[in-house]
Amino acid sequence: MQTQAQTQAFSQDIWDAKYRLKTRAGEPKERDIDSTFRRVAKALAAMERPKLQAEWEGKFLWAMRNGAIPGGRITANAGAQEHKPATALINCTVAGHLPDSMSGILGSVHAAGVTLQSGAGIGYCFSTLRPKGAFVSGAGSTTSGPLPFMDVFDAMCKTVSSAGGRRGAQMATFDVAHPDVLDFIQAKRETGRLRHFNLSLLITAEFIDAVKNDREWKLVFPTKEREVEAEALDLNNPDQVIWREWPTDDGYISREDGKVACKVYRTIPARELWETIMKSTYDFAEPGFILIDEVNEMNNLWWAETITATNPCGEQPLPEFGSCLLGSLNLTQFVNEPFTVSANFDLQKFQKVVRVFTRMLDNVADISGLPLEAQRQEMARKRRHGMGYFGLGSMMAMLGIKYGSPDSVRTTEEITKYMALIGWVEGIALAKEKGPAPIMEEEFEVTARMLLMRPEMARDNFRVGDKVKGKVLHARYSRYMQRIGGVRPDLIEQIAEMGSRFTHHTSIAPTGTIPLAFGNNASNGIEPSFSHSYMRNVIKGGKKTKEQSEVMSYEYLAYRELHPEATPETLPACFATADNVPPEQHVNVQAAAQKWVDSAISKTINVPSDFPYEKFKGIYLYAVSKGLKGCTTFRFNPEAFGGVLVKKDDLANTTYRFTLEDGSTVEVKGNEQVEYDGEIHNAANLFDALKEGTYGKF
């Protein structure tokens, strides 16, 4: 028995606005959500052999009705070519490395604009651009540095209207050793700047070690021969030059081991830089924290890629022109006898849905709709996809388990492990039926760097210059696949022999509006519910500011079906919310899932507004100790207001001061309604729109 909550009107509104197929004139072509499912199932089944299409269409429809929800771009655009011919089915992309030249940067702006217009988000690493003040020989002047070029990308994203009614989404990553790192960290403190970007620092193990041991930290950038000669730099003097791995060649001085010479611009105490990062994150929730060494160490394609960027929400670390399609399982659909002593998770049904869903997502790779040839080639070669889930927090409450407790950590790991294992079982089956991802059959020459990264290859008698198939490097020498092999060694042997249909299978996205539209506001991604009754800010056509709608969590609504008298204040202890789970417990849940996720996880650790700063700093070091690939926190700060989700108490307890044309001021509580410019607005949203310059531009 599964308890179903009464569908909220807001959920229907989200489906209608974002996922319901309509003509160019706005005429609906689908009468209900099941019609949307039918369209998607039919479009993805069309990738099967003609005589099997009807069978797989039925299976795909069954999977969607039972909790398999393809990512937003797939659900909105699959089978919609008649009405939206220029849209992509891909959520996540990363740009090619930004060349350190004006023509190269402007070419990248064009490519990014085309990508955003197709509906995909995009990430870039800006630390390949030389620091401000560096000499540009061709121009005979100095450069303004990466930040002004980020403004160019931000303006482009603001201008380009992405497909399907979405605002463009971008991620900027930045090397923690770049000379302009302090400017990057504090960039968003300037009102209205870079508001179409998420910002994340690429944190290295070397930097963390310097922080822990209170050492100096060198800020560096690659150098070329003419610069070495002009400044009489000594390549053997570590006070002037250090050797680092770098994602681009671009004529820099390099050694046989592939490392490039980096000029030391400045040296600062590592803890001083750490404090700046932490204070910005505490006050403004940015920059995020990408542990880039862990990302590259655990990458299934460790020998073929060096990753320096992620998609806009961070769950997909990707190489140059890399792309990934997404899909999420609604975990609330696998709970039997919820809110009772007999509550249980239907693992058998879950595994069956995962198998069908894996095939569905693999088919998307053949109709991705990516706008750039480099993106299409990258997708075809590796066939990456990212299966994840949403509703984890809601599911825990339904099972009577408190999110963050030891039981929840064990349950999270078990469910994620089965999702991964069944995915690889299906990946092998699909490789037998349709062929493996092409990179699996490619031959790669063993290099000294590969042997350094994977000493066990030398123990297996590989030598520099030997040739080895991608499927062997993937199966036997990927750190993640070695973990899979610890449970199912047979899968490793099968992949080494015949390959897998895809190189990556799992990724846990934040899931955005998918849980609202198709899960009746089940909790997002891996999160607990934000609150059981709260306000959600949404953009509505014709409105000059965001509009607030009250929504309730899925578990609260489902519980009220059994207990009509329940209120948010009288719910059982197992009903967690994002900010009443201790930060360490958030990290523990994320770490349990990350163990079995081969890409990454988008997760935000919500902390109360009054959370002590000294304790806050410890969250990040704890995340490092647990082997996470990244960490993001959020603390409500009215000065940086602009979130999608807002608690009623935070609004009621915050006063906003508006300055009128005559210089007088008016103070209004955040939850009050005010009239301005002929419209009624929520005070907090009006304040934010005026401050950020978005008023009237939605």
Account of the protein in words:
The protein has 698 residues and is of the alpha+beta class. Among the domains are: 9-88 and 315-437, no CATH class; 92-310, Anaerobic Ribonucleotide-triphosphate Reductase Large Chain; 439-498, no CATH class. The chain contains 27 helices and 29 strands. Helix 5 links the parallel strand 2 (92-94) and strand 3. The longest helix is centred in the middle third of the chain and has 29 residues, at 406-434. The relative contact order is 0.11.
Query: What's the pLDDT, averaged over the residues?
Result: 92
Question: Poorly predicted ranges (pLDDT <50, ≥5 residues)?
Answer: none
First and last CA, distance: 43 Å
CA radius of gyration: 25 Å
- Strand percentage lies at 15-25%
CATH class term of one domain: Alpha Beta
Would you tell me which CATH topology of one domain applies? Answer: Anaerobic Ribonucleotide-triphosphate Reductase Large Chain
